[in-house]
Amino acid sequence: MNGHHVKKIPIHLQSAQNRLLIKGGRVVNDDMMQDADVYIEDGIIKQVGTNLHTPGGTRVVEAKGHLVMPGGIDTHTHMQLPFMGTFAVDDFYTGTRAALAGGTTMIMDFAIPQKGESLVEAYHRWRSWADPKVCCDYALHVGVTWWCDKVGKEMEELTEEHGINSFKMFMAYKDTWQLDDHDLLESFKQCKEIGALAQVHAENGDIIKENTAKLLDMGITGPEGHELSRPEEVEAEATNRACVLANQIGCPLYICNIMSKSAASALGEHRRRGTLVWGETIAAALGTDGSHYYNPCWQHAAGHVLSPPLRNDSSTPSSLMELLDVGDLQTTGTDNCTFSASQKALGKDDFTKIPNGVNGVEDRMSVIWEKGVVSGKIDPCKFVAVTSTNAAKIFNIYPKKGRIAVGSDADIVVWNPHATRTISAKTHYQAVDFNIFEGMEVHGIADYVICHGRVVVEEGNVRAVSGMGKFVPTPSHSPYVYGRVQERDIANAPKKVDRAPYDGPVIQLNNQGLTQAVESSIIPTNQEFYTRGAQMNDKSPKRPSVKVHNPPGGKASGSFW
Ligand code: URP
Ligand code: ZN
After folding, report:
1. Fewest Cβ atoms nearer than 10 Å: which of 374, 426, 470, 531?
2. Alpha-carbon span 50 to 46, nearest angstrom
């Protein structure tokens, strides 16, 4: 006993709380659909099938005509992130309550240390913020914003002792979080060493800095400057570079929040060449576009500022959805990092000061259903794959999460595919006063949401309690990610060529690295002369030569030039 007062619940109420039958629905997993009932006890799925035998006193949720799917996993959120001088307004309470309202039962947030700060301390700080507040389950990724050996050791400690299996490196945010290529390589090496997944925010921060200065000089200070300073190719270049660097190390890589067709195509090319890389896009990129940066209302335009930015191209959202369907992209997050109008106004005269971030945690499932399933681009199984299952596999929590099956956590959304709602900041649960999907009519509503076997959303009403959710440790060496790394390394290992040693003459270098020429080997060409090491049977016209500046025969062999 821990000394806390434990309130006894009468046995008949215990049954009602702990036993639940979802009846008459169509169960959807990433690989199959079946008409089946789902019986839950103590937060775990105990039976899936028809004509189930269930104990008396079991609560029944009628799901006829509904789809019964794994609760969503949002792979990318920033609740209450301290950022750009302020804090994201949705905290771990309002943010996770809103997640539940929309059918998401788990979020993955980021503990981000400042440059020079301990990663482990940052991790504990985030835990202390999240644990008392979360209404749904959560996991953490940890940021690597600087590099030294101690950072590497802390990554190991986080992996071995604190349930962290992914680390995020930023290729943007110069002068704060950005890593250069050397430090990226070091962090990739360490990720591989400890069996963690390397994640990157892929944008070229140096180019952004250059472009920003030019735009401000030109008097472009509004939110459109944000998008203009970081065009698609800036995202695509970093995506490609990250893939090349990770592939050189043989480290599995995950590209966060892919926002453009160019970046997605760079990733796709690498996947087809065999690079171990996975891609995430976000609800914002699937549901809206960058034309909003050109809206005459400053507040509206600033409300859409996030990084990488939305693209001013109306075909991007549907292209990204198609890439989720074909498997070039695998997961969907939101990058939920919300700032209200008065916070965004920090950048009213300078777009670089607009806090970056948008909403999405509440609406992700509906937006993807509307733009993906209702539009006929993906089927319900693929919807499940990209909203939960693929994330659970990549981050090594499958099939505990991301599947409706015996033994899995009872994190379930009972989805009404026919009902509609209109998204609005006036009616959403999130704390932020703006919604990038304002006015969008979506089919697909989470009629019931079950989290750990508890009904937390019931016909639109959310009954969530602070601290109800749990931290979910993510074990290292995810088989989905690391399953072929060892064999791949062996198969691709460089092979030495066995050959007889060279036994001809070798030129001598003096201690300044200059050539000590052999008189007989000096060949004049105009005013410059080249020494060549004589070699038996040498017919090659392309022998490497060393340029020297001295007259032929001017110095005796053995002296220095
Ligand atoms: O705009 C964004 N994405 N804000 C949050 C910080 C980040 O880059 O993830
Ligand atoms: Zn982010």
Report:
1. 426
2. 13
Whether residue 554 has pLDDT greater than 80 = no
Q: Answer for the pair 191, 198: CB distance below 8 angstroms, yes or no.
A: yes
Q: Give pLDDT tens digits for 77-120.
A: 999 999 999 999 999 999 999 999 999 999 999 999 999 999 99
CA-nearest residue, atom 5 of ligand 1: 357
140's tokens: 């953490």
CA of residue 108 to ligand 1 center, whole Å:
14
The answer to whether 289 touches 312, Cβ cutoff 8 Å, is: yes
pLDDT digits (tens, 9 = 90+) for 135-191: 999 999 999 999 999 999 999 999 999 999 999 999 999 999 999 999 999 999 999
Please tell me the distance between residue 284's alpha carbon and the centre of ligand 2 in angstroms: 12
From 344, 327, 234, select the one nearest 281 (Cα to Cα). 327
Indicate if the pLDDT at residue 514 is higher than 90.
Answer: no
Residue nearest to atom 1 of ligand 1 (CA): 306
Phi, then psi, of 274 in degrees rounded to 5:
100, 5
Q: Which atom of ligand 1 is nearest to the CA of 306?
A: 1
Q: What per-residue confidence (pLDDT) applies to 432?
A: 98
Q: What does the chain come to in residues? A: 561
Instruction: Kindly report whether the peptide bond that precedes residue 473 is cis, defined as omega within 30 degrees of 0.
Output: no
Can you tell me which atom of ligand 1 is nearest the CA of 256? 9
- Residue 203's nearest CA partner among 251, 240, 247 is 240
DSSP 180-237: -HHHHHHHHHHHHHHT-EEEEE---HHHHHHHHHHHHHTT--STHHHHHHS-HHHHHH
Which residues form the pocket of ligand 1, taking CB atoms under 6 Å from any ligand atom? 78, 201, 306-307, 335, 337, 356-357
Given a contact cutoff of 8 angstroms between Cβ atoms, the answer to whether 321 and 375 are in contact is: yes
